[in-house]
Amino acid sequence: MLAALRSRAHSLSSPSLRQPWLWKLNQTSSLSSLTRDDYGRTEILKLDEIEKVLSEVRADDVKVLRVGDQCDLTDYMVFATGRSSWHVRNIAQALVYKAKQKQKEAKRMLLPSVEGEESGNWIVVDSGSVIVHALDEKARAYYDLESRWETGKPPAESSQELDTALVKVRRKNNSKKRVQPRT
What we know:
- There is one protein chain.
- By secondary structure, this protein is α+β, with helices and mostly antiparallel strands.
- The chain contains seven helices and seven strands; from the N terminus they run ααββαββαβββααα.
- The strands form two sheets. The chain has a five-stranded mixed sheet. Strands 1-2 form a two-stranded antiparallel sheet.
- Strand 6 and strand 7 form a beta hairpin.
- Residues 4-31 have low confidence and may be disordered.
- This is Protein Iojap-related, mitochondrial.
């Protein structure tokens, strides 16, 4: 009897048996619409699907950079500009909707990770081997992410210019005198 209990405890020590939600995770039928890239990472959306969605929602100035040699997390970074915060949110929502439609018949959906939806100025959608940065025009010009990821190109701004740009400047008027209008 002791030997039977010992063998049962040994068989239950496998993590997949102790965690029932992992029982069907390794089956390919539940995630059949997803593919894997060359490194075994799951691709929720492929690059051509993302480009098609971005053209459908009329994202401006779409730029695709291959960053696989610089970064282990992803193969491509896509930068797209929205005309307003609503348009930037719409770009992210369209990508999530496409991922849902792609996995329509799956028993378990794997959705892309979305960050920054509250502000709407800069939203990042991580879909596995492709990371999409949807920015409004001001944020894209200010952060200039493309130049930071392109090889061989230094950033457009120096760190001193960035430090002075972040300083809040107020007009000094400590007295109770009225301010003279400038002519």
